[in-house]
């Protein structure tokens, strides 16, 4: 049976920028993802969230509006309204798995920088029980095995594939990497650019820059 692949892209989205959108589009095109869920962090253990949740959600709406198969999933934010514990990716994937329909498989999208730090994530090696992991490599800095810890190298050796069809015949557990041309910028760099009153052209999706200026965010 050929599985229906669903992309999952988590992050603070503080703010969402063109790099996020391009990463999702690239994998959607390559792996024919039926949809991509953008999951804004609740209390992120690795990140300092600057802006209120309502602004992050509104910026996501503006950014995703032109993309019919991109959706906001705010389960982490809702969870943290009553629970002030950090939001861990493993818990989010477990929650998604409870809602998964027959014939679906989740693909967690990330950049190579995040993948190289995967061992610092809570229960990181259990992530493979719930999803495939699709990694974007920067052309100028691909992942080399010598960069991996021994534990991560073991997972890499056992799980790596470059065949999209492998993703469709397994419900979870594989790693796939591809090199895409995309805007290599972080949300923190965007915030610095706004604070310095520098040009944001081509860095933020349509409407997001206007929203930031309207509400005087990150100034």
TrEMBL record:
<comment type="similarity">
    <text>Belongs to the NadD family.</text>
</comment>
<comment type="function">
    <text>Catalyzes the reversible adenylation of nicotinate mononucleotide (NaMN) to nicotinic acid adenine dinucleotide (NaAD).</text>
</comment>
<keyword id="KW-0662">Pyridine nucleotide biosynthesis</keyword>
<keyword id="KW-0808">Transferase</keyword>
<dbReference type="GO" id="GO:0016779">
    <property type="term" value="F:nucleotidyltransferase activity"/>
</dbReference>
<protein>
    <recommendedName>
        <fullName>Probable nicotinate-nucleotide adenylyltransferase</fullName>
        <ecNumber>2.7.7.18</ecNumber>
    </recommendedName>
</protein>
<feature type="domain" description="Cytidyltransferase-like">
    <location>
        <begin position="8"/>
        <end position="192"/>
    </location>
</feature>
<dbReference type="InterPro" id="IPR005248">
    <property type="entry name" value="NadD/NMNAT"/>
</dbReference>
<comment type="pathway">
    <text>Cofactor biosynthesis; NAD(+) biosynthesis; deamido-NAD(+) from nicotinate D-ribonucleotide: step 1/1.</text>
</comment>
<keyword id="KW-0548">Nucleotidyltransferase</keyword>
<keyword id="KW-0067">ATP-binding</keyword>
<dbReference type="InterPro" id="IPR004821">
    <property type="entry name" value="Cyt_trans-like"/>
</dbReference>
<dbReference type="Pfam" id="PF01467">
    <property type="entry name" value="CTP_transf_like"/>
</dbReference>
<dbReference type="InterPro" id="IPR014729">
    <property type="entry name" value="Rossmann-like_a/b/a_fold"/>
</dbReference>
<keyword id="KW-0547">Nucleotide-binding</keyword>
<keyword id="KW-0520">NAD</keyword>
